[in-house]
Amino acid sequence: MIKVDNLNVAFGDVRAVKSASFTVKDRETYGLVGESGSGKSTVLRALSGLNRQWTGTIAIDGRPIGPVRDKAFYRQVQMVFQDPFGSLHPRHTVDQILSEPIAIHRMDDAEARIRRALDDVGLGPRFRFRYPHQLSGGQRQRVAIARAIILEPSVLLLDEPTSALDVSIQAEVLNLLARLRAERHLTMILVSHNLAVVAHLCDRLAVMNAGAIVEEMTVDDLRRGEPAQAYSKQLLRASLGYDRKMADSLITFE
Prior knowledge:
Structural class: alpha/beta
Shape: globular
Low-confidence stretches: none
Number of helices: 10
Strand order of the largest sheet: 6-7-8-3-9-10
Distance between the termini: 32 Å
Helix content: 25-40%
Number of strands: 10
CATH class: Alpha Beta
Radius of gyration: 19 Å
Order of helices and strands: EEEHEEHEHHHEHEHEEHHH
Number of domains: 1
CATH architecture: 3-Layer(aba) Sandwich
CATH superfamily: P-loop containing nucleotide triphosphate hydrolases
Largest sheet: 6 strands, mixed
Mean pLDDT: 90
Strand content: 25-35%
């Protein structure tokens, strides 16, 4: 479904992504993990069309995609952002937020589509005319997910979709995404620094460091604690929680 080959992204003299290549199968969830600044969100922004300054090859469902995308691309590929408050218009109701993509893409039966999207994310009609500030963080993220799926895409790009939420709410949102993937036959790319989140939702993952993919592995490899590269092993150890001995042993990777 997704093929990325030799992707490079630079901001001035800074190479944010260096020759990244990976593929994602149809209906698979693929993780991009790494510390802050490793380039994982930059990959997602290039895939989504938000960043047009890149070189390399990107293909979606066998179709090469350039820096400038058409409307058909945005119906097929949707993105859910990290901050559910910042990604929603503060002066628009949930109804307006969900109506906008329907109007842009000139889809019919807006009423039924809005009702179904709200039901699918577990909110229902009582939230339809509320504003973002009247919702909890988890509810706002559910609205953001509803906005993404209302166009019936085949690909969802998820940029740290649970990192701004409480731990208990994170699990609910991850379970929601897993259910939507199964029901709607979605292909997903999940960007996260949280290996537990990746292990819960993904099938395979790539570890990024300093803009480069240093290793690919399955989630089973991750759960067994069997990464091959030193950086991946260190990332796994760091994810287990703070420990003085572990912290003192950490190596700086360039």
